[in-house]
Each structure stands twice: as structure tokens, then as C-alpha cells.
Write a structure and sequence with these properties.
This protein is α/β, with parallel strands linked by helices and 246 residues long. Helix 6 links the parallel strand 7 and strand 8. The chain starts with a strand and ends in a 13-residue tail after the last helix. It has 2 domains: 148 residues, Rossmann fold; 74 residues, no CATH class. It is globular and about 50 Å long. It has 9 helices and 10 strands. A 6-stranded mixed beta sheet has the order 6-7-8-3-9-10, sandwiched between helices. Strands 1, 2, 4 and 5 form a 4-stranded antiparallel beta sheet that branches. Helix 4 packs across helix 5.
């Protein structure tokens, strides 16, 4: 579905990702892991087209299969403004935006989709609660319900289990497994190696460069993990821009 060829992305003249090459196959379930600051979220936001234009990337190094997939993106829970006065139902209804648009009304079909999605994530009866009244686990379930309504071919998840209790994590992992069975392409930024080993068949290990990419047992070796930690310790935040990224 997505091919990266020498993909490089820079912030303020310093590459956050160096020369990443590989592919996310259609229907694959891939974890993206690595030390803090290794470019994991940058990669996801770049795929989602969310990074500002002044940041530099080479579009030719990012290739999509045709037709371009329908995409859904889950931000880090810390990026969600919980003070915004929006109800659970309205937040999930935003998942219909791509089909309904700005000037169409919400019909019974859309409301039924929202109701079904909230039931799937165990939040039926909370439709009229505001986001600020929810626990972190409940909020993450709301965001997953919105993903369900979006019905996307490609699902990008940025640290979906941070600040979420174990029961909610297990429930959401089951939903991700269902998406995988449905041949949707799922890419998730994660930190828990054991979780990755148990639930994600493919892994991309980053340390601003690609350390390894492939079947999880072949990627999450002690040698690869040690290499990623060593690369992180050697980062020089004042280094000059990589010439091949210029």
C-alpha cells in the first residue's frame, strides 16, 4: 500500500528521519517502535499529511498504491483538547465527515453507525457526555469508535495505549486484530516490546534511521534493540543538515 524509498524528513534543517526504505503491504499489521525522539510520530504524521509545509520531505520518496486508500488517523491522547465542548456522539460523528461533508445533514444512517460503533467499544449510553467528563480509557474508546465510523482502508495509530488501563488496552487490541482480519492496513506507534511481540506480526524499528524492518521476531532481537539504543545515545541535536536531505 505504501512504499518508502530513501525517505527523509527534516525539522528546521535537521533530519528527523534519515533515508527510510521499505514497504507497508496492503493488509499488514505493523508496529513502529524505537527510542524517544526516534521519528516514530513524525513518520505517522507524514503519512497522514499532517506536518506543516515548512518542514522538508521528498514527496517522490513516498509512493502510494493506486487508488489512494481511505485513511484514518488516531493522534496521541495528549494531543486531544478535552476542554472543547463536544459530546461523545458528535465526536464520533466527525468520522462521517469524509462521506457527509460540511453542508449535509446528519441522517438516521449516520446516527445508527455511531450508535453501533459506541456499542462495539462499550460506551453505549454515554452519547451525550462531553469529552472532558471521560476517563482516559473512555476517551480512547471514543476515538476508536470514530475510527470505526470512518471505515478506512489504512489506519494510523499514534501511541494508542498510553494512559489507558489494561482492560481497555485488551479491548482495543481485539479491535485492531479484527481490522487485520478484515485486511485493513494498520500502522501503530508503540513502546511495549512484549505487546508488539504478541500482537503485531510486522515491526519497523527506528532510531531516526531504519534499524530493522520485517517480521517481528527477526526485528526485535537483542542486537537490534541494543543498536537502536546506541544510536539514540549518539544523536547530536546540533549536527548539520544531512546533505542528501537538503
Amino acid at each position: 500500500m505504501i512504499a518508502l524509498n530513501n525517505f527523509t524528513f527534516s525539522y528546521q534543517q535537521h533530519p528527523a528521519l534519515h533515508h527510510i526504505s521499505g514497504r507497508f503491504a496492503r493488509g499488514s499489521l505493523t508496529a513502529v517502535i524505537g527510542p524517544n525522539g526516534s521519528g516514530k510520530s513524525t513518520l505517522l504524521k507524514s503519512l497522514a499529511g499532517l506536518l506543516p509545509g515548512q518542514h522538508k520531505r521528498h514527496a517522490a520518496s513516498l509512493q502510494w498504491a493506486a487508488p489512494h486508500p481511505r485513511m484514518a488517523y488516531l493522534p496521541q491522547i495528549s494531543d486531544v483538547d478535552r476542554t472543547f465542548p463536544i459530546t461523545v456522539q458528535d465526536c464520533v460523528l466527525l468520522g462521517c465527515w469524509g462521506r457527509v461533508g460540511a453542508f449535509s445533514g446528519v441522517d438516521a444512517g449516520a446516527l445508527a453507525q455511531v450508535s453501533g460503533a459506541l456499542h462495539t467499544v462499550g460506551l453505549q449510553g454515554l452519547e451525550h457526555r462531553t469529552l472532558g467528563t471521560l476517563s482516559s480509557g473512555q476517551l480512547q474508546r471514543v476515538l476508536f469508535a470514530r475510527l470505526l465510523v470512518q471505515d478506512a482502508d489504512l489506519i494510523l495509530l499514534d501511541e494508542p495505549f498510553n494512559a489507558v488501563d489494561s482492560k481497555t488496552t485488551a479491548s482495543l487490541l481485539a479491535l485492531i486484530a479484527l481490522w487485520h482480519q478484515q485486511r485493513r492496513t494498520v500502522i501503530a506507534v508503540l513502546h511495549d516490546d512484549a505487546q508488539v511481540r504478541q500482537h503485531f506480526p510486522q515491526t519497523l524499528l527506528l532510531a531516526r534511521e531504519m534499524v530493522a524492518w520485517g517480521p517481528t521476531p527477526e526485528v526485535l532481537t537483542e542486537a537490534n534493540l541494543a543498536r537502536s539504543r546506541a544510536m539514540a545515545q549518539a544523536w547530536d541535536e546540533d549536527a548539520a543538515l544531512c546533505e542528501r536531505a537538503a
